[in-house]
UniProtKB/TrEMBL annotation:
<feature type="compositionally biased region" description="Low complexity">
    <location>
        <begin position="823"/>
        <end position="834"/>
    </location>
</feature>
<dbReference type="InterPro" id="IPR010730">
    <property type="entry name" value="HET"/>
</dbReference>
<feature type="region of interest" description="Disordered">
    <location>
        <begin position="87"/>
        <end position="117"/>
    </location>
</feature>
<feature type="domain" description="Heterokaryon incompatibility">
    <location>
        <begin position="163"/>
        <end position="324"/>
    </location>
</feature>
<feature type="region of interest" description="Disordered">
    <location>
        <begin position="808"/>
        <end position="839"/>
    </location>
</feature>
<protein>
    <recommendedName>
        <fullName>Heterokaryon incompatibility domain-containing protein</fullName>
    </recommendedName>
</protein>
<dbReference type="Pfam" id="PF06985">
    <property type="entry name" value="HET"/>
</dbReference>
<feature type="region of interest" description="Disordered">
    <location>
        <begin position="964"/>
        <end position="984"/>
    </location>
</feature>
<dbReference type="InterPro" id="IPR052895">
    <property type="entry name" value="HetReg/Transcr_Mod"/>
</dbReference>
<feature type="compositionally biased region" description="Basic and acidic residues">
    <location>
        <begin position="813"/>
        <end position="822"/>
    </location>
</feature>
<feature type="compositionally biased region" description="Basic and acidic residues">
    <location>
        <begin position="964"/>
        <end position="980"/>
    </location>
</feature>
Length: 1013
């Protein structure tokens, strides 16, 4: 039995034995490739069964003895639709598919296609429509892809014109004897074998699904209860395998559907609420710089009541729902019940759904019982509400709920239901390739965000969250929860393994965890430890808080060089860069020049720290006393700030504390973020300080080459990706051109990207604080892990047929990204592909790698049907290979150049060794906020041989062999990794002793793994 310990705090820390256990779980990995094939060829849909609308309950009982089978007729009908949509043998070779004529059948009730076929490639065009004038009670399951199993995936054209249903399964009910009660169901479903059975989904759910499909003009529905088998424990193994693949493909199902219906349980029961929602959503079209019209407070009151009902809806309590809503993205529609007599538009016709439908021109014939609001419409509703709160606070003040401050709280909670995804500004970053197994943009989260969103969600089986997290994060490597549950009792350990297998290090970032929490056992306040490799996640997974969502991600394909394979020595193998910090760069002249301007942007912040043995009540009382003593007293605040600027802290005997016990009270000088974001002058002052520092480093580089590396590390960690409206891109490196760039001259603040931490403070301004306090910065030199791996990996790629032998030609500059521009080589000869790729700027290289990854993914997917070999190929590895060959980043010469020129800075107070573990998602523009947090590990090197060797685990996975029998055998999907990837005897073993912030240049994939404990 697996325990769901993800919401707990104060757990025992994970040790070396747990790390070694994690390394054995790779035996139970499965690739996303099989799920893609399932969603493309084997997915089933629920459609209306119009063959016999008069089947009675007696007919159902008869089928139990003599099943009703009409599969031959159904296959013939559906095959005709498939042949038309897939250009089968009915199309003559000399006749192009677009000229194929279709003879529409005679109208027959809801099956009528009065308008003919609008798209010859849509399977759904020849399927019957759902009835709109009565309840649909007869359904059937279809599997379009199975009718032509010989057709390759490349030639198979799936139809995305279907509704994916997102809804809550009913809670199980039991009678007085403890027997499970089955709710009455009238609906019937005919399975693929022709046998008619009672529907597994409730009639109410199917009624709303059909209603929604008619609103959208669609004829196919995907609903898990009907389209996935629900085998019992002793059920057929083939059904279990089909269900397992379907679960792993859930994110694909909702991403490929043209629309997703989120069936809420709430009802909009009065016209006033419906009118208010329509008015408020229309206001979102008004420019943000223009004031909104004055609104009656009754409209705001209706909004409050509506948001309260949405927040409390059961739909937001289920774990499966959150992964469905994220995968659907902007195609999600929130569907509410409609009260009697409510007037509200119901049509959801989309230009992406060209298939003709009889209701297109006769909307009045469909009396929908639903009120549908798109997820973007809901977000717009919340944007308008926030603007109204700022612009019309007087109207808000007289609402019944605002007096208690509850309105803004409800608004904040409503925003958390559907976080707005983050999108890059660079035009090419907003494009994506469609085709094969790619269905357009799909929002993506990392492990930390997925666990944050799941914290308030429940599911019946703890291990279900393994597949849910993998789907939310769009991981390529999955864990088979059916089998890992037999070897792992902690969900926390399984999720951590899943994230690390996919190169996702977000769970190891300290700032994502609440700093203090109540110990569940002692009921005392405790701090989250942040000094170990796996902390704070291993001890306090329930304290995680991250709501970052990418509209399109990750921009840099994930790489899976480390596989957590059971290596022969202890330690967690992770790709990382190692830095030796042994030098302070003197910047005292900047301190003298800028300190006064920097201090003007600061305000006092007090933090009250819980004390040992202090009760929650006593802590809150002491906290209130401290706030009352400081709040609103300008003289005390100025005195405290002055002491902080001079001494770094407020002394316990300071006059600041007169009459107040300073025990456990910390005073810090923080940037006034509210002032900076509201005052253009303050923004430009902050930007001016940053660019003065960069300009000084640029000048200093003429006599101290190390200053250039420091400047570039700062710039790469602060810059935006792109400035809209300007044709000239920002320089990749700090140079004279940066300070004359139009964006910097017009609005320097718009060229930097400052991330906020959980406490709403800027994460990247620590380096300015160090300069203003100490007049120095500690510099880290890139340190080669060992030289043997360089030559070994170089020779490993020598056989690849690229047009030039890039490997061995050396580095092309002082950075991972060259600042040269495209053109001819210095010899006047035409440039090779490698030269042209190396000379592209960061954004173009990034877009090129992303496009290459998308095309590679489609090409490999199309080859799945003919060869299973491509199932084990990782797209991220191909992109890494592209980097290796075209930018020569794995040569001995390039590594020597890095050792001489690559420098970084870290928030440390003295010499040390630091590791920056590689996370592909962090090395992009725009960069993730997590990159600005404490992702740098202060490490101590250990004697590897003192830890001995661990037993080698055979590469086994579980494969079904007959009903009720299981056999462990080598998996074809998980080929043995090459020995090339295993750390050799010279690979160092490090112990993580602290985590700090740092700045480094955008980096490519490192040479190899380093071992950590």
């Amino acid at each position: 039995m697996m325990e769901d310990d993800l919401d707990k705090t104060s757990l025992p820390a994970l040790g070396i034995e747990d790390i070694e256990k994690m390394k054995t779980f790779w035996r139970f990995t499965i690739r996303k490739a099989s799920a893609h094939v399932w969603a493309f060829r084997h997915i089933r849909f629920l459609v209306y069964d119009d063959t016999d609308d008069e089947v009675t309950k007696e007919d159902i009982s008869k089928t139990e003895e003599c099943p009703y089978n009409d599969s031959e007729d159904e296959e013939a009908t559906l095959r005709r639709a498939i042949e038309m949509s897939l250009e089968t043998e009915n199309v003559s070779p000399d006749r192009s598919p677009q000229h194929t004529e279709s003879e529409p059948s005679a109208p027959k009730g809801p099956s009528a296609n009065h308008h003919g076929l609008s798209n010859k490639y849509d399977i759904c065009a020849n399927l019957p429509e759902f009835p709109h004038d009565r309840k649909a009670r007869n359904f059937r399951i279809i599997n379009p892809g199975s009718l032509d199993p010989t057709r390759s995936l490349e030639r198979l054209r799936p139809c995305t014109h279907h509704v994916a249903l997102s809804y809550c399964w009913p809670e199980p009910a039991f009678d007085q004897l403890g027997q499970l009660c089955q709710p009455p169901r009238e609906s019937k479903v005919r399975d693929l074998n022709g046998i008619v059975r009672k529907a597994r989904a409730l009639d109410d759910v199917l009624d709303r699904a059909v209603d929604f499909a008619n609103c959208a003009g669609l004829r196919m529905i995907w609903i898990d209860q009907e389209c996935l088998p629900q085998p019992a424990t002793d059920g057929p193994e083939e059904e279990k395998e089909y269900q397992q693949l379907g679960i792993q493909a859930m994110d694909i199902v909702y991403n490929q559907a043209i629309i997703t219906a989120g069936l809420h349980s709430g009802t909009i029961s009065n016209q006033t609420t419906a009118d208010a929602l329509g008015i408020l959503m229309d206001l979102d079209d008004i420019n943000a710089h223009e004031p909104l019209p004055r609104l009656d407070h009754l409209i705001l009151d209706e909004l409050y009541s509506f948001l309260c009902s949405v927040i409390s809806d059961r739909w937001y309590t289920r774990a499966w729902i959150i992964q469905e809503s994220i995968s659907a993205g902007a195609k999600l529609v929130l569907s509410f019940r409609r009260g009697g007599g409510i007037d509200y538009p119901s049509s959801l016709r989309s230009p992406e759904n060209p298939t003709k439908h009889s209701l297109h021109s006769q909307l009045h014939l469909h009396s929908s019982q639903l009120i549908n609001i798109t997820v973007n419409g809901f977000r717009g509703l919340l944007r308008v509400a926030k603007r109204l709160a700022e612009e019309q606070f007087q109207e808000w003040a007289i609402t019944p709920h605002a007096a208690q401050g509850s309105f803004l709280s409800v608004l904040e909670n409503a925003e958390l239901l559907h976080p707005s995804p983050i999108a890059g500004k660079y035009p090419l970053a907003q494009c994506t390739i469609r085709g094969g197994n790619r269905y357009g943009l799909r929002p993506t989260v990392n492990a930390s965000t997925s666990l944050t969103l799941l914290r308030s969600r429940q599911c019946r089986e703890a291990q279900d969250k393994i597949a849910i997290v993998a789907n939310m994060c769009n991981y390529d490597i999955r864990l088979n929860d059916r089998f890992i549950v037999k070897h792992c009792t902690s969900l926390r350990l399984a999720i951590l393994t899943l994230a690390l297998l996919n190169g996702d290090l977000s769970l190891l970032v300290p700032e994502l965890y609440l700093p203090y929490h109540i110990n569940e056992i002692s009921n005392k306040w405790e701090a989250c430890p942040t000094d170990g490799l796996l902390s704070p996640f291993d001890t306090n997974p329930g304290a995680i808080h991250d709501r970052t969502m990418l509209e399109k991600g990750p921009l840099n394909p994930r790489s899976y060089a480390h596989t957590l394979i059971g290596t022969a020595t202890f330690g967690l193998p992770l790709p990382a860069y190692i830095w030796t910090i042994d030098r302070e760069l003197d910047l005292s002249c900047l301190k003298e020049q800028l300190a006064s301007y920097w201090h003007e942007l600061k305000i006092l912040r007090i933090t009250v720290v819980p004390q040992e043995g202090e009760s929650d009540f006593a802590f809150r009382a002491r906290q209130n006393t401290a706030y009352q003593h400081i709040s609103g007293k300008i003289d005390i605040q100025k005195k405290a700030l002055q002491e902080i600027f001079q001494h770094g802290h407020v002394h316990k005997n300071s006059e600041v504390w007169s009459g107040v016990d300073p025990t456990g009270i910390r005073c810090t000088a923080e940037l006034n973020v509210a002032l900076i974001e509201s005052d253009p002058a303050a923004r430009q002052k902050l930007a001016g300080i940053i660019f003065v520092i960069l300009a000084h480093l640029n000048r200093l580089a003429r006599r101290d080459p190390g200053a250039a590396g420091v400047a570039n590390s700062i710039w790469h960690s602060l810059r935006v990706d792109y400035i809209q409206g300007l044709e000239v891109k920002l320089p990749d490196m700090v140079c004279d051109d940066l300070f004359t760039h139009p964006g910097v001259l017009l609005d320097a603040f718009s060229t930097i990207q400052l991330h906020k931490g959980p406490d709403n403070s800027y994460l990247q301004t620590w380096f300015i604080d160090r300069i203003m306090r100490h007049g120095t910065l500690w510099i880290g030199r890139y340190t080669r892990v060992h030289e043997s791996m360089i030559s070994r990996r170089t020779s490993a790629f020598a056989f690849l047929p690229f047009e030039d032998q890039a490997i061995g030609k050396g580095s092309r500059g002082r950075s991972e990204v060259s600042d040269e521009r495209q053109g001819s080589s210095s010899s006047g000869q035409p440039q090779s592909v490698s030269d042209r790729f190396r000379e592209k700027d960061i954004l173009d290289q990034q877009s090129g790698k992303e496009t290459f990854a998308e095309l590679s993914e489609i090409a490999m997917f199309h080859s799945f049907g003919s060869s299973g070999a491509s199932k084990g190929i990782n797209v991220g590895a191909l992109v890494r290979l592209l980097d290796v060959r075209f930018r020569s980043i794995w040569t001995a010469e390039a590594d020597e150049a890095r050792a001489q020129e690559l420098l970084s800075i870290f928030d440390v107070d003295g010499p040390c060794v630091i590791a920056t573990p590689f996370n592909a998602e962090w090395e992009t523009l725009p960069h993730s906020a997590l990159r600005s947090m404490s992702t740098c590990w202060v490490v101590e090197e250990l004697n590897r041989h003192a830890y001995g060797r661990v037993p080698v685990i055979e590469p086994l996975c579980v494969e079904s062999k007959g009903k009720g029998k299981e056999k462990e055998t080598l998996s074809n999907e998980n080929p043995l990794p090459e020995k090339e990837g295993e750390p050799d005897e010279n690979t160092p073993l490090y112990k993580v002793v602290a985590k700090v912030k740092g700045f480094w240049q955008l980096m490519g994939f490192p040479y190899g793994d380093v071992l950590f404990i």
